[in-house]
């Protein structure tokens, strides 16, 4: 069943790339494995998947010890400053940086552990009160302030679009994030590469790809509904 789910997601990504005139290699699928047991991750790993996304730092830390070392772990959930130490030397990319204080904590820990940490800025494009992320209006000033911090590298932007019944409803959200990245890239800020757009989840990743997503985060579509118990 997991392989069938995985193959279906892969096919939909390929079709979305074709529709938007893009190469399949331009889009990275992140299998969102939060709350899922290691055996399920191994099954998807055996399908050839190497990028996995986790929400909780301790869960990522525990799984890295049990799974193959060539997995690329993505920290996609809200990150508290006191949990930074669990992910700095394990995550290939932290998607959810939304404040100066968090960026400083990541930078300090990266210096301490003598590693380089690529990060994305999480933008609350839709302005939802229930969501984390910096506002569109404050994104540039945040990036400008933290771009000089040592051992972190700003690689792009991330957003969590609203949950909607009709995926098309989120097209303006994805388009706005992409345009924001284009505008920031044009400012040529040192240590800022606007090359990654992490947007789109199980419900709307095809639309996100059509609007320029370079990473899509798919959990339920691959693993089934999450277990919160």
From TrEMBL:
NCBIfam families assigned: YggS family pyridoxal phosphate-dependent enzyme
Protein name: Pyridoxal phosphate homeostasis protein
CC cofactor: pyridoxal 5'-phosphate
Protein role: Pyridoxal 5'-phosphate (PLP)-binding protein, which is involved in PLP homeostasis.
Sorted UniProt keywords: Pyridoxal phosphate
Modified residues (N6-(pyridoxal phosphate)lysine): 34
CDD domains linked to this entry: PLPDE_III_YBL036c_like
Domain spans labelled Alanine racemase N-terminal: 24-226
Family statement drawn from the similarity comment of this UniProt entry: Belongs to the pyridoxal phosphate-binding protein YggS/PROSC family.
InterPro entries registered for this protein in UniProt: Ala_racemase_N, PLP-binding_barrel, PyrdxlP_homeostasis
Organism: Blautia liquoris
Alphabetized Pfam families for the sequence: Ala_racemase_N
GO molecular function list: pyridoxal phosphate binding
Coiled-coil boundaries: none
Lineage: Bacteria, Bacillati, Bacillota, Clostridia, Lachnospirales
């Amino acid at each position: 069943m997991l392989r069938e789910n995985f193959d279906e997601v892969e096919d939909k990504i390929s079709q979305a790339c074709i529709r938007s005139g893009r190469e399949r290699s331009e889009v990275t699928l992140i299998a969102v494995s939060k709350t899922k047991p290691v055996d399920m991750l191994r099954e998807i790993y055996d399908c050839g998947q190497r990028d996995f996304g986790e929400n909780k730092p301790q869960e990522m830390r525990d799984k890295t010890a049990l799974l193959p070392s060539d997995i690329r772990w993505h920290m996609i959930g809200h990150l508290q400053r006191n949990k930074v130490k669990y992910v700095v030397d394990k995550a290939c990319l932290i998607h959810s940086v939304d404040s100066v204080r968090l960026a400083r904590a990541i930078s300090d820990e990266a210096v301490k552990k003598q590693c380089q940490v690529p990060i994305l800025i999480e933008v609350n494009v839709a302005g939802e009160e229930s969501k984390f992320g910096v506002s569109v209006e404050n994104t540039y000033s945040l990036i400008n302030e933290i771009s000089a911090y040592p051992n972190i590298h700003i690689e792009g932007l991330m957003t969590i679009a609203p949950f909607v019944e009709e995926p098309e409803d989120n097209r303006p959200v994805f388009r706005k994030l992409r345009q924001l990245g284009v505008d920031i890239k044009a400012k040529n800020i040192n240590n800022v590469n606007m090359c990654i757009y992490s947007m789109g989840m199980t419900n709307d990743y095809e639309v996100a790809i059509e609007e320029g997503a370079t990473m899509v985060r798919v959990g339920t579509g691959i693993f089934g509904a999450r277990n919160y118990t």
